């Protein structure tokens, strides 16, 4: 993979995680205003689809879903899996 490709992948991942972060914030706002919510399976799915950093930060910053065992286990698990995968791709080559 060339340096330009790596920069592109990192930039896309950063943008995607920013979107996931914003979705967690949007869902928290909807919860406060008693409006339609983003389904939990979508929030968890976004975390596992390489949005774990955004999901984790969204949970922390907005204090959202932090009392739900499903989220306090699965989002950090997704983050751990992604960290291991990135380290394996970078160091393992």
What's the structural blueprint in terms of helices and strands?
Layout: H1 3-32, H2 40-62, H3 69-91
Tell me briefly what this model is:
This protein is mainly α and 93 residues long. It is built from three helices and no strands.
Explain how this protein is built.
By secondary structure, this protein is mainly alpha-helical. It contains 3 helices and no strands. The chain has one domain (about 5-90). Helix 1 (about 5-30) packs across helix 2 and helix 2 (about 40-60) packs across helix 3. The radius of gyration is 15 Å and the shape is elongated.
**Helical residue percent?**
over 70%
Morphology call: elongated
Distance N terminus to C terminus? 11 Å
From N to C, what is the helix and strand string?
A: HHH
Task: Find the count of extended strands (DSSP E, 2+ residues).
Answer: 0
Q: What structural class results from the helix and strand content?
A: mainly alpha
Mean pLDDT: 95
Regions with pLDDT < 50 over 5+ consecutive residues?
Answer: none
Radius of gyration: 15 Å
Largest sheet: none
* Count of helical stretches: 3
Q: Could you say how many structural domains there are in total?
A: 1
Instruction: Report the β-strand fraction as a percent range.
Output: under 5%
């Amino acid at each position: 993979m060339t340096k330009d490709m790596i920069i592109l992948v990192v930039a896309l991942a950063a943008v995607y995680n920013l979107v996931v972060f914003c979705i967690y914030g949007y869902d928290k706002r909807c919860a406060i205003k008693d409006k339609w919510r983003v389904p939990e399976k979508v929030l968890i799915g976004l975390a596992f689809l390489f949005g774990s950093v955004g999901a984790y930060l969204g949970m922390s910053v907005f204090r959202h879903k932090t009392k739900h065992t499903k989220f306090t286990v699965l989002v950090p698990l997704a983050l751990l899996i992604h960290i291991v995968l990135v380290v394996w791709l970078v160091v393992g080559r």
